[in-house]
Amino acid sequence: MKARLVLLATVLDVVVLVGLGVGIFFAPLTLVWAFSDGFSTQLLDSWAVAVQGWFLGHSVPLFIELPAELAQSLGLGEMGQSFQVTVALLGIAVLTLLWGYRIGAREGARAHPFLVWFLAVGTMVGLSFLLAFFLPAGAVTIVLMDALVRPALFLAAGLALATWAGPDTAGREIIRERVPQLASSVIRAGFAAGLGSVIAMLGLSALVVSVLLLVNFSSVISLYEALQPGAYGIIALSIAQLALLPTVVVWVFSWLIGPGFALGVGATVSPLGTSLQAVPALPLAGILPEAVPSWGFAVVALPAVVAFGAGLSSRARLLGHARGGLWAGEPGTAWFAQPVFTSVFSALLAALVAAGGGALLAALASGELGPGRFVQVGPDPAAIALWWGIEVFVGVLLGFFSGGLAGSLAQTRR
Cα separation of 390 and 248, whole Å? Predict the structure, then answer.
């Protein structure tokens, strides 16, 4: 593919991505402006909210300064007049990540990798600058550096993922050519088991959220009716909650792991104990449990089971498909090359990968959601890294060992 066509396609891709991300918020807000407000308000206000929502979707903090009269009417007082919102609407970030992967996985990106990376990230930075610089002045302000860097990081993460995912990518070629075979096997198995554990737990968390929405459907509808947003307000509110849904999945992810998450200072939701106070007035809050279920403590064992499956499925990357035990009988085999030690090393790497990924997700899904007690919302990244790392290490190691023991039993029976 010619370089000019790659250049044009990459720039257009990023422009469409940004337009789609802002449009997800702006389209329903335009309906509210036209039909609910009767064109009585400024359309620029809707545009500003859409741009702010897009930036918040990429974890860009929003600093809010309310007028004194409005803060007093809401009962916030002087302390609640200034606050910030930092809990990301991760649905937008996921869209950018997947779009970056799509750009990086194309044939043109593999033929001209540096050109695609430079153009994609540069275009995202340029569009972010335009959106932030021309943002209408109001109660919400954004730090320009955050606005330039954070959306570009999510796009670059998608491009990097496309560089490593798949058997014939450039990253895999580097590992095969420059890393010794034993170390390559440990790295490949560790990363596969760690990432597999994270992806499997996120998928399970998304399934749990879906079940909770079905089971608590009446509570969610009751909260919609209590808010009385109107027909077009329901559309806008629903789209905002769809953007928040991946963040809720991360909260459930932290609940399944064990530490749980906070919904304000002094309000925690975990399988080991739940203490709820006033919650944000969102229909999604209808899925929150009022108390710990009787089987809640048993949930803590579920992440280790998921990690066990990831370790079992990744064992072939470490030791191949040949049957064998945990200790090789060939003379001259170094101790660190023995299956038992390579399994431990790979399980440690899997635990580090999973702990880092879990801590990153927790950091993106936590922060401040408003004034007062909502300055602390979401999971604690350090607690997630500790709990998840230990669970993954134990589960993956048992998965590696069980494959070796199964091989030993098969040879004994023969």
Answer: 23
Same domain, 149 and 32: yes
Distance CA 353, CA 359 (A): 10
- 111 and 172 in a single domain? The answer is yes
Long-range contacts of 30-36 (CB under 8 A, 24+ apart): 31/232, 31/235, 31/236, 32/230, 32/232, 32/233, 32/235, 32/236, 35/231, 35/232, 36/230, 36/231, 36/232, 36/233
Closest by CA position to 371, among listed 53, 83, 91, 144: 83
**Does one domain contain both 213 and 317?**
yes
pTM metric for this prediction: 0.86
Range of the domain at 48: 1-176
Calpha distance 22→47 (Å, rounded): 9
Whether pLDDT at 8 is above 70: yes
CA 91 → CA 21, 45, 246, 365, distances in Å? 10, 22, 6, 11
pLDDT for res 247: 92
Tell me the per-residue pLDDT of 244-255, one tens digit each, with 9 for 90 and over.
899 999 999 999
How many folded domains does the chain comprise? 2
**Do 98 and 170 have their domain in common?**
yes
